[in-house]
């Protein structure tokens, strides 16, 4: 242990680090930055736990056990009785003599953490003399010559101008370590809109315990963010980080545009922030513990109960209401606000999601606030929310149709007009959502086996020879039809066939058959003036296969609520937006 009095400040700055509880605590405090698997960062929460005044002062006494040499004492410490405690107060941002700063003091905990890590704690005296605190970080690279550089303050003053004994190795070590304590704090945007972040390559994002899920066009990570590094209402500190490749900047812009336009809704997944980092584009979203509706269907179906059916119908109504907010972004506003809006020249308020499917409906079942908002026991099943707006496009009210061949689709849930290259618009989503609802009911009544059987039957029942595909319709041409026909299916198309019902006493299959019929006749209509005919065929006309009289499958959902005997309770829910009767 060094005990001699050093002659000046420069020699004091090169004193070796002594082993202490503080140094040991820092050694174990750094989190692996699992998002890259290469770097570490010091979470603010861990730093705050370690950097207590008592621990700091104790560490300083180990550095200078006999007190700070007289020649090394900076002017602001000369009137202090205990120099160690005075330095500790400086580091912790507590009030110190007014002669030190004219402005309000700031903490130097990050600065001192770096010095502990690179074994240069005694340099705190030089930084204290210059009035340097955490607000001066990061130091900038200055006078770069190849791999060599000098660190400087933002004003251009080089660190070696007041710590002359620091060599290039010390500066490089400081530069590396400063980014480990400067991971950003992510904040919500103003007016509940998301914040857009763009970070330099040196920035270490505060993500730990990352789990990546590969995808065709992007990767979705489950990341844990230290609670001191975000201000979002996520009690478990778990988030979904969707990463798009550098070549997919257009997709990133499209999805941001969708989130900007779509109003907040209980059944639409919100966006917390966008992050550009190292050439990649990221979307920070809430993490759905239950994953997706498709994941739900991989589990055992719940026992048939009035309670669960109430939850199911309410979720279907909520999803329909959320989709309606995409189809008309003004629905999320009050009538007074919407009426007063000065519409811009680019009045694109009519959206089409474009990819409604089970994997794009997230299942949130871990949030206590969801349970509270659902009311009573119904919240224990969670909440379903539409996600993934990468294919969502917006148009003006008088130009909502798009050419089918220019649209990317999920084949199973595409509408019939897509196959004959018709113009498609918002009813595209309604067809897809209807298919999802039919599968959802199949799972509720017949379980996972019913879902699998339904999938196989849809492929086997294709009316076009030698062509197999998983979809909910077939396009046929016949002698009695001048126009192509979209066939929804025969009575045998599905796990609840008439033969099954006759065999009884399988009430689940009987119920499935009745509900399927309700869907065909109430949900999928051929036009706004005539109903579906008895042959389950839809004439494909030039306007649209699905020119529906109501924008969403509200009538079939009302039918389901009657089956649950809770029609008055659910449809009168004040949390749901009203369903408009506009023409698509």
Shape: elongated
Largest sheet: 6 strands, mixed
For the termini, the CA-CA separation is 82 Å
Oligomerization category of the chains in this entry: single chain
GO molecular function: ATP binding; protein serine/threonine kinase activity
Protein name: Kinase-like domain-containing protein
InterPro entries: Kinase-like_dom_sf, Prot_kinase_dom
Pfam family, one: Pkinase
Structure description:
The protein has three domains: 9-181, no CATH class; 190-286, Phosphorylase Kinase, domain 1; 293-332 and 349-571, Transferase(Phosphotransferase), domain 1 (Orthogonal Bundle). 34% of the residues lie in helices and 14% in strands. It has 19 helices and 19 strands. The strands form seven sheets. Strands 5-9-10-8-7-6 form a six-stranded mixed β-sheet, with helices on one face. Strands 17-18-19 form a three-stranded antiparallel β-sheet, with no helix packed on it.
Helices and strands, with pairings:
Blueprint: H1 9-12, H2 21-27, E1 31-32, E2 40-41, H3 44-50, H4 53-63, H5 83-92, H6 109-117, H7 124-130, E3 140-145, E4 148-152, H8 168-178, E5 195-199, E6 207-214, E7 218-225, E8 238-244, H9 249-261, E9 273-277, E10 280-286, H10 293-297, H11 306-327, H12 335-340, E11 350-352, E12 361-364, H13 368-374, E13 383-386, E14 393-395, E15 402-403, H14 416-419, E16 423-424, H15 427-460, E17 474-476, E18 485-487, H16 498-503, H17 507-523, E19 537-539, H18 554-564, H19 567-571
Parallel strand pairs: 5-9
Antiparallel strand pairs: 1-2, 3-4, 6-7, 7-8, 8-10, 9-10, 11-14, 12-13, 15-16, 17-18, 18-19
Helix pairs in contact: 4-5, 11-18, 15-17, 17-18
Keywords: Kinase, Transferase
GO molecular function: ATP binding; protein serine/threonine kinase activity
Protein name: Kinase-like domain-containing protein
